[in-house]
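Could you join me in thinking about how sequence relates to backbone shape in a protein? To get us started, please write out a protein record for me. Would you write everything just below, so we can both look at the same thing?
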Amino acid sequence: MNRPCTITFDDKTLTGNADEPLIDFLKAQGINLPSVCYHPSLGPIETCDTCWVHVNGEIKRGCTLRTEEGLNVSSQDREAEAARHEGMDRLLAKHELYCTVCENNNGDCTVHNALVEMQIPIQRYEFTSKPHEKDTSSPFYTYDPDQCILCGQCVEACQNVEVNETLSIDFSSEDPRVLWDGGEKINDSSCVHCGHCVTVCPCNALQENSMYGQTGPLTALPWSLKRPMIEIVKEVENTTSATPITGVSELDAALREPGIKRTKTVCTYCGVGCAFEMWTRDRNILKVQPTPDAPANGISTCIKGKFAWDFVNSEKRLTTPLIREKGQFREASWDEALDLVASQLISVRDTHGPQSVGFIGSSKASNEEAYLTQKIARLIIGTNSVDNSSRYCQNPATKGLFRTVGYGGDAGTIKDIEQAEVVMLVGSNTAENHPVIASRIKSSQKLHGQKLVVFDPRQHEMAERANLFMRPNVSTDLIWASALSRYMFDNDLADHEFLGRWVNNVDEYRESLAPFTLDFAEQKTGIPKQQLIEAAELIGRAKRVCLLWAMGITQHSHGSDTSTALSNLLLVTGNYGKPGTGGYPMRGHNNVQGASDFGCLRNMYPGYEKVTDEDARKRWAKGWGVKPEQLSSEIGYGNFLMVQAAAEDKLKAMYIIGEETAFSDSNTHNVHSAFEMPRLYGRAGHVFKPYRGVCRCRAARLPQRRERRLLC
């Protein structure tokens, strides 16, 4: 709980929260204490020396101070001011100022902002170019050693936040620079292009390639023109002071501002839920900028969220509806296309019955769109044949969680995973599939001693970092999970108080574990008995355990049963319902949970009310203003069953939103075969078939989502 405190800063009395970084405290009060190397997500690095203040008779770096009752700080002390100017002068000796022609002069350059705030009259130490070339090997960002101030923020981010451990600085070198794997080119190194280093860079030393030549009126000029302009500016600065020059750069930044749009959005790739600002000029994406207050990721990103947005302006992206006639697509207006889709769906319903139409909602769309999809299916068409891609990747976990804890969602937050004493990863290549969560785990393990236990047939990055890594034989996860649960009961590691208070049928469950001895588990899983004991002891004696599992478990014929066994292991050890605990099924798409929560399921209304429950049917009928008889009580087809029904000529039409069914289903050939047979006949005898091939528009991720509905 936050405690209030009162401090004095430059003879002003300020009130706020105690134990808060001084720079953040002042910023909340509208006061900027100039600093360069400080970032709220990284903490004090103490390398720039531009934030010196006077405290209790001595000067201290402001970034190291935290607020407390009675703190008295002065930034106007002569000694502190001189120290700040000296720090900035030394930074400028490493960094060539050419702000007006710099892509980063957009209010986001910490060096520029601090320079203006400090009103440095002239650059005291002459800039000297470094004997290093720009590294342009990465397709996503560039490193310019001449602009690098060696603050170390990128290294801190890579080493201790993302924990990719690629970047370093060799300060013993005569001409230090940031190094990738000790001196490799970026693209030849172990860099995973997460972009975190670019996000925290306080200047233009690390910059997105998409920024170059795009952000201001003079940035697109060739260097053959920029260089003479820079030299002229240097002459002016050395004769009349830097103040007019910074004034021009401030004017330039203000002129750029109206053309740069910052749009808050949520990443459309995996299920972590990263949020950031999309910086655009016209239709050009300049950069993706995460912010410290993003609830899931803070300033973290992965290669996809930070850089993989070129599809937005792809020439292959569709921008108009297409209607297939006589085997060929033709362009159509929205009115014609939507009228055609609506009339044909109603026609199929009236001719062949509601069960002849199937709906697949998008696991990448919003909750509202998921709700509307299932409402159209149930209320307009009269069928419960509505599903989403969670049928393949998430539904098994949902079913296992409903069996054990009554709700098919995560038991906590990413913060809980960070706070866990032990994290278990099962069938999850987290570092590649959910990199931002992987970085939280890697950081907690490295900095706070968190233990990592990995069960996976593959020795991926998280397995290599694990304190315990076990390679079970394929399809044997239920066995070792049940064997660990039995071990907990047999060796007094079960949380009987928790079980007695919260869990039903404990005795029956314990009896069902009789076959799952450690010897049996060793024989079937291939995991040595001693390793199983070591894992059981670590998990059973830990006070806080989180268990994460993904497609290696759920995309399996017995995914629901294995998910049940994993969740039961957490129940047996009391690892639900308190901070730092719980089960976390890792989603593939960005809104699998929302699509399921809002009713894109063949057997569930929104909120997981069963369509076979008469009371639930009455409630939804009342809410939608119809008679209960208008809503079907028959469980519909799921994704896989829709393909089968199409092949058997039971399903005559499908409405698919933002999903490539042939990719989602395990048998692409079956999907194509089922969908190729002409079934839906439109006006003038036209045959409407699904588009065979990959949809390149990625329309499901953008507002123009309807294009893809008409293709499918």
